[in-house]
Predict the 3D structure of the following.
Amino acid sequence: VQLVESGGELVQPGGSLRLSCTASGFTFSRYVMSWYRQAAGKERELVARISSNGGSTDYADFVKGRFTISRDNAKNTVYLQMNSLKPEDTAQYFCNARWVFDYWGQGTQVTVSS
């Protein structure tokens, strides 16, 4: 089982990034997929979640209107489009798959700074 995140980098405030998480080793289309983040010295927090068929999404209040989660079950990939980035969005972003089992990726670093 693997979840591999990519797309994190240094970006200026107001900029955009798209994170990707590609899964292997399990039936991706049956799993609820989520993005979490953890800033230095803080607890991990839920950013966004998408149902197994992509028909339902949930967002943390602090990203509503700025971030969009989506998935492509044919590619075993979940995305997080992040717009209007703020310095407080700086964190390690993790992909999570949850159904019968709970899987985590290793994370990708997003740094928002001028």
